[in-house]
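ok trying again, last paste got cut off:
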Amino acid sequence: MAEQCGLCGAVDDLVDVAVEPRDDTVTLCTTCQDGVSGEISDAPHWKCLNDAIWSTEAAAQVTAYRLLHRLNSEPWARDLLDIAYLEPDNLEWAEAGIVETDDDALIHRDTNGAVLSAGDTVVLIKDLNVKGAGFTAKRGTAVRNISLVPDNEGHIEGRVSGQQIVILTEFVKKSG
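nice, full thing came through this time. structure:
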């Protein structure tokens, strides 16, 4: 067993944890072990993954990748996943342990981070030129009964001036 946690570097309450499906282990502290096996809490703790994803230990790197995938609602975690590099066999190993759940569904958020749902009303925070329709959707316009674009968390759809348009979530704020 190593003398420190493979993810955060803690030195107390360490235990070796199997990294399936290979016969390899990573040494983890109690907090990291709880995050791997259950609910991820204490969000600031997981900033340690900024270093762990670049570990020279494959099991630590794979574990960090899986945790970042589970934290994909956090912008910093998505950014880190975008730049992370794992050797092809380690990437395959990491992805083999990722279980897709409904929790992994895209979450649409407005400019303030509020979660948007289908049917919500949003207000435009900026004048938007609507390509192909020949008009400008003015700031302050309410867009009622929005629908969410299922494969892109940055896009919603709504009706403005009688036209169904796609709107970037960064240009809206949830109303009421």
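cool. The chain has two domains: 15-104, 122-174. Residues 58-70 form the longest helix (13 residues).
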